[in-house]
Structures are given as structure tokens and as C-alpha cells.
Write a structure and sequence with these properties.
heterodimer, A: 364 residues, alpha+beta, 6-stranded mixed beta sheet, 5-stranded antiparallel beta sheet, 11 helices, 20 strands, 26% helix, B: 185 residues, mainly alpha, 0% strand, globular
């Protein structure tokens, strides 16, 4: 079932949590709402679920207006960050809850409930925990039970609020892979909220990047990473280096030597700008070769080896900011770089944003 | 507002009930028309005692319910449970020890309540008499032995209540600790 949100706004007192949000989630997709804390992503999820009401705008499920329908009627499965399991019920009873509270004529028989619950617990790989109580489980196990409970009522939409937020790093990584696989098996339309960009990139079909109650960009993980729509997305998703510069008559000047042609800014004269360059979008030379120039002079602060990559922390003489560069290992001369060496780096790809737009860019 | 019964003297509370439900009170005529007796009858005693004691339950329950948050209830509703089902199957089981604790405190207070009940009951012996009222009557009639006997009985009941309270208090604390532990994990 598809979800569509049109023009949703929500304020808490004087704080505008959501500003005119519109987005679509096609049937069967797994979409991540990604953003820093306080950006409104959880509020949006609650509005989709019907746990919170929008001040303006509509929510459509499969093309039907669900804005005024009650949580109960929306048939959503909701997974909470802190699991929200019923502590006085066994794991089995937790999962069976949604089936047991159905009106009598819709309620499955005891045998059917039993079969369904055990099947789900097996799918979640926690069938051996059926008789335990939530306080006796680990965080990862609890979240699996919570997911089983949400799926027991055969929801049309699955909503997950920071599902792995309370787990330690290793379990989180495991559950991430497992959630992706589960989704590929079940194909239930899912929306999950996270502030962890790595998680969003790894698990989702599409990412919705949010900031200060607004959608910054919607796209596949690759689109969002390779073609960020705004300075905010650039700095929030993945690592990035910032260079202060100026834009004048179609050219961006970064540092003393680097010039970038920007045809779309041909009319701009002498505006301050910021250039964003990913760590892997640099060429590193040991000699200032060629007459064309166009490189930045930098000294090596630190060298680390990360698998097939060489990570260099550089700084330009006279500047404090660190430049993070990643180059593949294998070049014999480059692999010998050490602290204090001088290098010549040239950005191979960059995005330049005029300062006004860049002002609200924040570092994650 | 919850603390109003704590702040107001029980006698005043009793007077207010007389003012409202007494023969010449605001609802007096209406009650008379339907032949319902509240003042100088058992309903009056129950009403006055409830008013005096309900802050005990509220005081106990509100912080505990704050502590637990609303997530479990929200989860129940998304799973399709009705309001009644959510309360009965999710909320009530999770607050049962706090509720019991509040009820015991109420009971302790109710047994000893004098002022409000004294005003509304009318001291009709064998009909609208409570233990403290009875002690007062006996005492005023110079039946010291009988008065002290009843007083001892009341004190004994209080001790039993205290004992039960301690047990329940311990369980409540365990419950709250469990929530904290879960959060910490």
C-alpha cells in the first residue's frame, strides 16, 4: 500500500516542527526519514501512524484520505525505539495481543493464534524465547519481538521509529542487514526514522533527508550521496571538506590557484561561496607537475591506512581547517607519505554553493 | 486541585457536603423528590471519605504513570485495541501495585477519618457509625473500658495496614526499578 503526504504542517506551541511536507512512498518500498534530532522526522512518522494530528495537510493510504481516520483503522504496524513491549506479558502473549483484542467475529481461533504467533517468532528467530518475559531479553531480542508483534496484525504499512537507536553498534549492524532481508521477503511498505546516515544508506530503497521541519532531498542513497541538493545534505550525508571562496562572473575561486567554471553563475559578481568536496574527490600529487596549476598546496598531518584506502589529513599552510583526503593505495611513492610531507591536491569534483544558501548548512 | 482535600479541614469538607446534599442544600429538593438519602446515611459517609482520601491514590499513581510513559498504550492502540481493552489489558496491569498501594493508604485514612464523617453521618448508632465516631460516643458516655477496647482494635487494624503497605511499597519500588533498568539497557 502506498503512502502519500500532502502539505503536512505541525506546530508544538511556537515551535514549528513540520513545515509543509509532501512526499510519496510507493507500494513495497523501504524509505528512511533521515535527519538530525529535532528535525521533525519522528513527528512525521507519528502523523503517518495517526498517533499525532497534523495542523494542516493530508495523509493518503493507497490514494484514500486517511487524515481523519483513527490509529486503529489505519492498520499500521508501529515499532518504537524503546520497544514498548508489554512487560507483564510473555513474549508469546505480546505477539498474540493484536489478534486477541480483535472483535469476536474477526478473532482467529486459539489454535490459529498459536500457529501464527509461533510462525512469526520463528521468522524473527526468537521462537525459543516464547515463554520469557520482556525484562529477561536483550535489546536486540526485544526489538525482534516488537517487530513480530507489529507484523502479527498483518499491517499494510510498517513504521519504525529509530528501531536500532537503543542498541549497541554490533547488534545494530546485524539487525540492519536482517531488516533489509526481511523487507525483501515481506514487501510491506515501510518507513523508518533514523539519524544515522550510514543506516539509512545501507537499509533503504530511498532516503528522505529532513532538516528543521523541511524535506531537503528525496532520492536513492546513491543520488543523495553523489548529488546532494543542498549544503545541508552535503554535510549531513557522508564526509565532506569545505572550502571558502568567491564566485565571480561564472568562475569560482577557491584558494589562490583553483578555479572552477560555473556557467549557471555567469551573472553573479563577487559573491562569497563555499565549495564542498568529498574526501575521495581529490588527486594527490607529490610534485607540482604541469604548468596548468590549479592545485592546493598542503602539508600532511596524519596518514592512516583503512583497508584499500590511504586516508590523509592535510592542512594548507596558514589555514587551520583539516582537509580529509582518501586515495587508493598502490602508488609506491604515495604510499610512503608521512607526517610533514608536502603534497599538491586538486579537487576532481566539487559543488559550489553561494553563501546565502550555504548559511544554514550545519555540520553533523 | 488534587491537593484540595489535603489542605481543607475535613470538617469543612463535611460541611460542604451538607450544604450540597443536606435537606435544605442545593440538591436537597431534588434528592428528596427521588427519595435518595445521602446526608445522615451510608452514601454520605462513603462520599465524604472518598473525597478526603482520593489524593492518596492520585498522588501515588500520577508519578508512576508519568514514569511509564504512553508508549505501551500507543503500541496497544496501533495493534487495534480499543480504549477499554488498552486500559484493562495494558494500563491496569502495569499500575496494579501503585494502585494497591494507594488503596491501602486510602483505607488507612478512611478507617481513622473523623471530621468529615462526623459531620455527614449524624452519629446514628448501629446505622451510620464508624469506629472513630463510636470511640468518641463511648468516651463521652464515660465508658472508658469500651472506648479503649475499640481504640485498641482500630490501632491494631492500623498496624496490619502498615504491614501490608510495606510489602506493597517494596513491590512498587521493584516495578519502578525494573523500568529504569530497561531504559538504561
Amino acid at each position: 500500500m502506498s503512502i502519500e503526504i500532502r502539505g503536512v504542517s505541525k506546530a508544538f506551541g511556537s515551535f514549528q516542527a513540520l513545515k509543509n511536507i509532501s512526499l510519496k512512498v510507493p507500494t513495497g518500498e523501504l524509505v528512511a526519514l533521515l535527519g538530525p534530532s529535532g528535525c521533525g522526522k519522528t513527528t512525521l512518522l507519528h502523523i503517518i501512524a495517526g498517533l499525532e494530528w497534523a495542523d494542516a495537510g493530508n495523509v493518503y493510504f493507497h490514494g484514500e484520505d486517511a487524515t481523519s481516520s483513527h490509529v486503529r483503522e489505519r492498520q499500521v504496524g508501529f515499532v518504537f525505539q524503546h520497544y514498548a513491549l508489554f512487560r507483564h506479558m510473555s513474549v508469546f502473549e505480546n505477539v498474540a495481543f493484536g489478534l486477541r483484542v480483535r472483535p469476536r467475529q474477526l478473532r482467529p481461533s486459539e489454535a490459529e493464534i498459536r500457529a501464527r504467533v509461533l510462525e512469526l517468532l520463528k521468522l524473527m528467530q526468537v521462537d525459543w524465547l516464547a515463554d520469557r518475559y520482556p525484562p529477561q531479553l536483550s535489546g536486540g531480542q526485544r526489538q525482534r519481538v516488537a517487530l513480530a508483534r507489529a507484523l502479527a496484525v498483518e499491517p499494510k504499512v510498517l513504521l519504525l521509529d529509530e528501531p536500532f537507536g537503543a542498541l549497541d553498534a554490533k547488534v545494530r549492524r546485524e539487525l540492519r542487514v536482517w531488516l533489509r532481508r526481511l523487507h525483501d521477503e515481506l514487501h510491506v511498505t515501510s518507513v523508518f526514522v533514523t539519524h544515522d546516515q550510514e543506516e539509512a544508506m545501507e537499509v533503504s530503497d530511498r532516503v528522505v533527508v529532513m532538516n528543521q521541519g523541511q524535506v531537503e532531498q528525496i532520492g536513492t542513497p546513491a543520488e543523495v550521496y553523489d548529488h546532494p541538493a543542498s549544503p545541508f545534505v552535503y554535510s549531513f550525508v557522508g564526509q565532506v571538506n569545505l572550502f571558502q571562496g568567491r564566485v565571480h562572473r561564472g568562475w569560482a575561486h577557491i584558494g589562490d590557484a583553483v578555479r572552477v567554471h560555473l556557467p549557471e553563475h555567469a551573472e553573479t559578481s563577487n559573491m562569497e561561496a563555499v565549495a564542498y568536496v568529498r574526501p575521495h574527490e581529490f588527486e594527490v600529487e607529490l610534485q607540482p607537475n604541469g604548468a596548468e596549476g590549479g592545485y592546493l598546496v598542503a602539508d600532511v598531518d596524519n596518514v592512516t591506512i583503512a583497508g584499500a584506502l590511504l586516508r590523509l589529513d592535510l592542512h594548507q599552510p596558514g589555514y587551520d581547517e583539516l582537509i580529509r583526503v582518501e586515495v587508493p593505495r598502490g602508488d609506491p611513492a604515495r604510499d610512503k607519505l608521512k607526517q610533514g610531507d608536502r603534497v599538491y591536491v586538486r579537487p576532481t569534483n566539487q559543488r559550489v554553493f553561494i553563501k546565502e544558501a550555504a548559511r544554514d548548512a550545519t555540520q553533523p | 486541585m488534587i491537593d484540595l482535600p489535603f489542605a481543607v479541614s475535613p470538617v469543612v469538607a463535611g460541611m460542604v457536603f451538607v450544604l450540597m446534599f443536606g435537606a435544605r442544600g442545593w440538591f436537597g429538593d431534588w434528592l428528596d423528590a427521588y427519595d435518595i438519602k445521602i446526608i445522615f446515611a451510608v452514601p454520605g459517609i462513603v462520599l465524604a471519605t472518598t473525597f478526603i482520601t482520593f489524593p492518596f491514590v492520585a498522588r501515588e499513581l500520577i508519578p508512576h504513570m508519568h514514569e511509564q510513559g504512553t508508549e505501551a498504550e500507543e503500541a496497544a492502540i496501533t495493534l487495534g485495541a480499543s480504549g477499554w481493552n488498552t486500559f484493562w489489558r495494558v494500563t491496569l496491569p502495569s499500575i496494579k501495585w501503585s494502585l494497591l498501594y494507594g488503596v491501602i493508604l486510602c483505607n488507612a485514612r478512611a478507617m481513622g477519618e473523623f471530621g468529615a464523617v462526623s459531620v455527614v453521618s449524624g452519629h446514628i448508632r448501629g446505622y451510620t457509625n464508624t469506629m472513630p465516631l463510636h470511640i468518641e460516643i463511648l468516651y463521652n458516655e464515660y465508658q472508658f473500658a469500651a472506648a479503649f477496647a475499640v481504640a485498641t482494635l482500630l490501632a491494631g487494624l492500623a498496624m496490619v495496614t502498615l504491614l501490608v503497605k510495606s510489602v506493597v511499597e517494596w513491590r512498587t519500588q521493584q516495578e519502578i526499578n525494573a523500568i529504569h533498568q530497561e531504559r538504561a539497557q
